[in-house]
Amino acid sequence: MNCRFCATPLGQVFLDLGAAPPSNSFLSAEDLNGPEVYYPLKLFVCPDCFLVQVDEYKRSTEIFSSGYVYFSSYSSTWLAHAKAYVDAILPRLGLGPQSLVMEIASNDGYLLQYVRERGIPALGVEPSGSTAAAARAKGIETVEDFFGVRLATQLAAQNRQADLIIGNNVLAHVPDLNDFVAGLALALKPANPANPAGGLITMEFPHLYRLVESAQFDTVYHEHFSYLSLATVRRIFAAHGLTVFDVEELPTHGGSLRIHARHKADPLAAETKRLRDLLALETAAGMQTDGYYAGLQVRAERIKAELLGFLAEQKLAGRTVAAYGAAAKGNTLLNYCGVKPDQIAFVCDASPHKQGLFLPGSRIPVLHPDALRQRKPDFVLVLPWNIKDEIMSQLDYIRSWDGRFVIPIPSPEVL
Q1: Chain Cα centroid distance, residue 26
Q2: Which of 43, 96, 192, 252 minimizes the number of CB atoms within 10 Å of its CB?
Q3: Is the peptide bond prior to 410 cis by the omega test (within 30 degrees of 0)?
Q4: Which of helix, strand or coil describes residue 102?
Q5: Do domains 72-293 and 297-414 have the same CATH topology?
Q6: Is pLDDT of 263 > 50?
Q7: Are 142 and 132 in contact (CB under 8 A)?
Q8: What is the per-residue pLDDT for 66?
Q9: Domain residue extents for the chain
Q10: Which residue in 18, 11, 40, 55 sits closest to 290, CA to CA?
Q11: Which 3 state secondary structure label does DSSP give 333?
Q12: pLDDT given for residue 287 in this prediction
């Protein structure tokens, strides 16, 4: 296997979580009578560019199919995050009816709906048919395709280069990083006399530094081909004529970055102090050395042992445990730990697209949240721990029967 950015041969294992089915390949009742396909879930680190990556055992065209079940709009926290971004960025850039905002991996239109409300042309690019259809139902023009040089060339030929390109949690999902970032450069509006600054790209992705520091191994799954530091992303963008000149640290997904990039020749692409400071933090942590990428395996194994010990203790005591949030990270956690329905009876989720299905691998049934009130479990394991405050607020009623929450990462904790 070679690095998907710089083609350096890979040999150093960063993390090995065994084998698992893809985290969003939910099962129907009929599927329970058949086998599931498991793929290795092993990460490597490049000794040259320090890109952490999983081999492409399952192709992206299979993962983001018409039956894809992740719809962004079912998280109120994520909707608020998207709206706050739109409210801040559009006025700052002075965008209006003659502008074009493009979002790559636009999902169900969760963000572009706020752009459209302001009367600014919006174009979504979304490969999954189910979510693309939901976006179109909101009146958002959506191209149902994978983004890269081919599509970017087509859009540029149609004079549809963007003033603002948004990519939230897509960069890590891209199997061919070079094709994707080269496409960004083609799709971004260049500087011209009428627009001396050209267009802006903002991309959000989980920060590899936070994954390592907080042992967030459950954020590893087959949809995430890459795990990214600021230094590595800057290098990838620079290879395609784009300058990452600014960065914001965000609390989303356990700790994310939002990078800002422009064409290399753009006069506004001057590096900011916070970019230099974050690069210095990564360097001080040792992220440009092999040693930084050792040790996470032991921490993951410890969390596994602690969670299984907790579940065994409750089972022996006759107490019941349910889970909330049929999230991809939860499926990674449950499958790595080997959890089955005899340990966690059911998981609740607000998305009707998941209710009535079964989690891949563990085969735990996904139910409507009303099941919590009906069955009154002693403990609720919060699988999407990154939005635990939102979930615990929504489900605070479990306290009425002395129910308690369990947060699994960075170490199982009962609240």
Answers
A1: 18
A2: 192
A3: yes
A4: strand
A5: yes
A6: yes
A7: yes
A8: 45
A9: 12-56, 72-293, 297-414
A10: 11
A11: helix
A12: 96
| CB of 262 closer than 8 Å to CB of 269 | yes
- Rounded CA separation 255/205 (Å): 9
- Residue 252's pLDDT band, with cuts at 50, 70 and 90, is confident
> How far apart, in whole angstroms, are the C-alpha atoms of residue 295 and residue 8?
23
pLDDT at 73: 64
297-414 — its CATH code? 3.40.50.720
Q: How far apart are CA 335 and CA 333, in angstroms?
A: 6
For residues 297 and 337, the answer to whether their CB atoms sit within 8 Å is: no
Q: 35: buried, middle or exposed (CB in 10 Å: 19+, 13-18, 0-12)?
A: exposed
* Cβ–Cβ < 8 Å for 257, 230: yes
**What is the structure's pLDDT at 319?**
97
Tokens of 44: 């490597």
Half-sphere exposure at residue 76, Cβ-oriented, CA atoms within 13 angstroms: 7
Q: What is the pLDDT of residues 105-120, one digit of tens each?
A: 998 899 999 999 999 9
pLDDT per residue over 167-189, tens digit each? 999 999 999 999 999 999 999 99
- Euclidean distance between CA atoms 124 and 102, whole angstroms: 6
Percent residues over pLDDT 70 in the chain = 95
Pick the CATH number of 72-293 from 3.20.20.140, 3.40.50.150, 3.30.43.10, 3.30.70.141: 3.40.50.150
